[in-house]
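Researcher: Structure for this, please.
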Amino acid sequence: MGFVRPVIVSIAALTLGVALAGCKSTGVAYNPPVPRILYHHLYISNDSTAGAITVYDLPVTSSSTPSATVSVGTDPGMLFVDGKGRLFVPEFSGASHTVQVFRTPLTGSSTLAFALTTSQPDPANVAEDASGNVYVGEVDSGGYIDIYNGPVNGAASPSRTISNNGVGASGLKFPYDIAIAANGDLYASDTSDINQFSPPFTAASVPSASATPNFDNYGLRVDPQNRLFVANASADGVVNVYTQPFTNTSTPAFNLNVSGTYLYGLAFDGSGNLWTVDGNGVLWEIKAPISSSSTATQVLTGTNGYGIAFGP
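Model: Predicted structure, C-alpha cell format:
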C-alpha cells in the first residue's frame, strides 16, 4: 500500500501536465484560458486579511467554505490564471514590487514557484497574450504596464514598459485591471478612462481608443464575443458592457445591475457565467448567456474579496 499514493499523484500530475501542454492560451481574457475539464477551484484575493488567497472547491454555493487559505504577501490585487494553469498574484501594496506566481491547485502548503520583478512599486493586475507574453498593470502614480517576453517560465524583469505618455483623457494613471482580447488588443480600466492599445506594443504606445464613461473603472474582462465587461466602482454595483467597435466615444451597450455598492474583480467560469465581488464582501454570479436582461444572484457573503479567478 505504500506505493499507491505516489502512483496516483504521479498520474494526476501527468494528466494535468498533458492537458495544459496541449492548451495554448488564446489571448482572450476569458479567465482562465485552460481546458474546461480542469476548472476545479475559485481563487479570491482577500484584502482584509493581509496577504491571503482563499480557495473554494467548485461548484461554489451559498454553503461553501474555503478549502484552503494561502499567505501570499501584502494586499494581493487582481488575480489571473494563465494557459499553463499558474496563478499570478500581484502584490500591490508590498515592498517587494513583485508578482508572485503559484502552481495550481493551490493548497495550504503551496509555496511560491517564482516571482516577476516589476518596474514600479504597485503591481495590480496581470494578463497574457496568445504568444505567452505577460502584461502587468501598475497603479503607481503615472500608470505603467510592464511587458515580459514569453514564454515566462521563471523569475523575470520586464523587457519594456508602456508608460503614462499623457494617454487618454487624463492619462494612464491607475490601470486597475487589464485584459487581452482575441485580436491582441490590450484594454486597461483606469481612474476615469478605458484605454485600448493595439499591437505592436512599445514603450511609447498610446491608446488607439480611450473612452471616458465614468469614474473608477475596476475589474475588466473580455468575452469570446469581444465584449468588454467593466466593474464600475462609482455606480453602485454596476457592470458596464461594451460592444465593438470600441472608440473614443463608446458608451456601454447595456449595464448589469449587480449590487448596492461598488464592484471589484471580474472572472468568467468554464460555462461563461460572470462572477464578481463587491465592497461588502459579497460574491455574485450572472448566468450565461449574458444580455441586457441578465440578473445577478448572490452566492456568498463575507469573502472580503478583491480579485477573483477560476482555475485548476
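Researcher: Any notable elements?
Model: The longest strand covers residues 305-311. Helices lie at 4-21.
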